[in-house]
Amino acid sequence: MYIHQELLARAAAGTPVRVGLIGAGKFGSMFLSQVPTTPGLRVSVIADLDPSNARKACRTVGWPDELIGQTKFVDDALRMLENEDIDVVVEATGNPVVGLVHARAAIAHGRHVVMVNVEADVLAGALLAEEARRAGVVYSMAYGDQPALTCELVEWARSTGFDVVAAGKGTKYLPAYHASTPDTVWDHYGMTAEEAASAGMNAQMFNSFLDGTKSALEMAAIANATGLAPPSDGLLFPPAGMDDLAHVLRPTNEGGQLEKKGQVEVVSSIERDGRPVFKDLRWGVYVVIEAPNDYAAACFRQYGMNTDASGRYSAMYKPFHLIGLELNVSIMSAALLNLPTGSTMSFNADVVATAKRDLVAGEILDGEGGHTVWGKLYPAATSLMIAGLPIGLAHKVKLKRNVAANQPVGWQDVEVDESLDAVRIRRQMETSLQA
């Protein structure tokens, strides 16, 4: 409510919050669709590898010609960061290698950063967030994406005096999905490749949602922002509906499936035999909380909360997320309140490239959602101990040795270009901000 009043005042004064968007893909387009109906907000410039596609995206989402004419369209994001008068940079490329460079440059130029690019955030967000804090600017998760919404629930729980037992999101999962490739992905989604192509759906991107990589990245981002622990050997993806969260997501010694209290986890919307979970949370986020005393536990019962059998564990959840349609919350929080909507605080969790099949020396890895590797969540300390190759750097790199199916790929297994900016940034984080 207070943000909206400030936006109205800014609109009246002719001093809108100025945004520079990098990447006009699906997420960027969803954000752009909200711009014409948001007072006090102006997208000053959009940087995209193909500016004509960015203009087309604006027209597609309903921008009038006048608004398009008032906006700059460029193909060089770094030059945009140097030369344009913008308050907040939205990094929405989805490319971790360029995303790190863009975010670091934005921070160096005194711009707030909303990091839609969770791949880049997990790769080296702890370093970027620390640099942003030293520079006096905001480095923020993107509200509307599940990590920021989960962090909001964790913040609610902790601020109201509850211990957080578990937090995370829902997805569609079966163990076989880890081996899914862009060639098989549409079978799992129940559509043909032709139907997907006509809808403009990218096979590799959608495969990253299915094969577990995106879930691992998002849970790593949450763990790094909240201090919640990742599981010791990857996500379990237990089937659980909204009514079952407090029962399933409690420690094993109390009848649940968690190693311990205070973890991130993803729940599946389907049972292992393929049956749908009742009241699934496929599109939502959750937090499981524990009553700190008998009185609070009694209140859970009195006010209709879903609990486990003991009555001490309960859950709060949000059944849907609107992705880029909600991004304005992050932009305004940064520009008007100087606060992030979730931000990396430590290098607590990591996502390591893991072989989808037996890989042979000489093969070229094709990264997130591809044919060769999927991303597995690990504690950061474990990732460092095994010298795991971050999934964000597992694209267009050549294997030097064979890697067996389901085994992690290590730095030593690939030819790494140590001069690459993203590699240097990651190495710097590993040495300066180790867990």
Explain what the structure shows.
The chain has three domains: 2-143 and 324-337, Rossmann fold; 147-173 and 212-321, no CATH class; 349-432, Type Iii Antifreeze Protein Isoform Hplc 12 (Alpha-Beta Complex), CATH 3.90.1210. The chain is built from 17 helices and 14 strands. It has helices spanning 2-13, 26-34, 51-60, 65-69, 77-83, 96-108, 118-135, 146-159, 185-189, 193-198, 203-210, 213-226, 245-248, 294-302, 328-337, 380-385, 421-432, and strands at 17-22, 41-47, 72-74, 88-91, 112-115, 139-141, 163-171, 263-268, 285-290, 313-318, 349-355, 364-366, 373-379, 395-398. The chain has a six-stranded parallel sheet with strand order 3-2-1-4-5-6, with helices on both faces. Strand 1 (17-22), helix 2 (26-34) and strand 2 (41-47) form a beta-alpha-beta unit.
